[in-house]
UniProtKB/TrEMBL annotation:
Keyword entries, A-Z: Aminoacyl-tRNA synthetase, ATP-binding, Cytoplasm, Ligase, Nucleotide-binding, Protein biosynthesis
Enzyme class: ligase
Subcellular localization: Cytoplasm
Quaternary data: Homodimer.
Gene it is expressed from: proS
This protein's name: Proline--tRNA ligase
Xref: PANTHER family: MITOCHONDRIAL RIBOSOME PROTEIN L39/PROLYL-TRNA LIGASE FAMILY MEMBER, PROLINE--TRNA LIGASE
NCBIfam families xrefs: PRK12325.1, proS_fam_II
Amino acid sequence: MRLSRYFLPVLKENPAEAQIVSHRLMLRAGMIKQAQAGIYSWLPLGYKVLRNVEAIVHQEQQRAGHIPLLMPTLQSADLWRESGRYDAYGEEMLRITDRQGRDMLYGPTNEELITDIFRSHVSSYKDLPLTLYHIQWKFRDEIRPRFGVMRGREFLMKDGYNFDVDYEAAMRAYDRHMVSYLRTYERMGLKAIPMRADSGPIGGEDTHEFLVLADTGESEVFYDAAITDLTLGDRAVDYDDAAQLRSICEEWTTPYARTDETHDESLFDAIPEDRRKSSRGIEVGQIFYFGTKYSDPLNAAVQTADGGKVPVHMGSHGIGVSRLLGAIIEASHDDKGIIWPEGVTPFHCGIVNLRQGDEAADAECNRIYAALVAAGLEPLYDDTNERAGGKFATMDLIGLPWRITVGPRGLKNGVVELTSRRTGESEELSPEAAVQKVAEIYAPHLAAAAIL
Ligand SMILES: Nc1ncnc2c1ncn2[C@@H]1O[C@H](COP(=O)(O)OP(=O)(O)OP(=O)(O)O)[C@@H](O)[C@H]1O
Ligand SMILES: [Mg+2]
């Protein structure tokens, strides 16, 4: 993309309505525009990151064997009456009536709809295990929408539902989700800690929330510092290997980590004092086992091997896709702007031409652009006539992790400058070497996108 042809409405001033840094930077970098309270338009740059985050979620879900589908945003009230939640859900549910007077709602979640799909088509244990998921807009009429995409009213969520024949099988699905979530967040450059949580109105027994530590988080969290050292890294995960999944989950759930709802002072006090931490956290996902809470009232049952019939065991598993953009920025920024992790960056590399119109500089920028594209990367080339300082400020604000700066003076010596947004360090390299280095940095990220 050439900046002269792009739509990047950056703001020079700090928007007064933004109370936290991620909201401020998303507005300033021209990523979102508020349409109504808690409802946003995704401008091109924001939309690109949203799609990147969504793609990682899709890839990691499908790697775990979960199957994508798409359910509608508008749902019939009748199904929710069957589960008893139509009246129970309260004011967060946006209720709508169509021209025939039928009660509808904008889905805040999808347990009823997915259970209806399941019961219409599956009747035998032989079709299990099954996990279906989608990434779809939700609406919750939050009483206090705030912090930009962090607490919206309309927001994008990945919600997945497992269907299993018994408790043991459902717990394998639980473990699969926990591990796939750990991988998902790691690929986004985030440390999200699974914390034992309270099951709340959805009900059920086992549940963990995934929290990104940040001062601006809405949850209060307590944890053993040892948990922040854990990483999956590039270890091979076999999603059919239940023992391996269990051991990974044990690794992550053994150190103490809880939200204020389940916090237990006596357990916490047993941790060595220097490792006892409390802070704030942003909830970026949650996994739930709730057994037959929906399959019982909605009559979703399967035939068992011995000819019996049992209600199916279920769980639901959510990732806050749009909230993640805010969480990533809260975790990765400086006073100049956003610093995108390589896994989600809207463009892989910026190209800054210091002297637009200079024949040699223009030609080299075009060559670098073409070479990056040939390496499977997407550059953003600032080919405008803006002065250098302004170009750097925009690149720093929008946070591309790598920048190649091209100017007539360097070119006389056959070099361009490659700069890391994170460290601010620059090195002079030949244009070919700079492209090569950027391609090598992104190679593992491109490879991670492939699902075997
Ligand atoms: N209003 C919202 N705006 C943006 N993302 C949200 C919102 N509500 C929930 N999410 C995201 O969707 C994920 C799954 O939804 P879930 O039903 O667990 O939310 P929740 O527990 O009600 O969230 P919260 O406690 O933050 O209100 C959450 O972990 C969160 O990341
Ligand atoms: Mg939750």
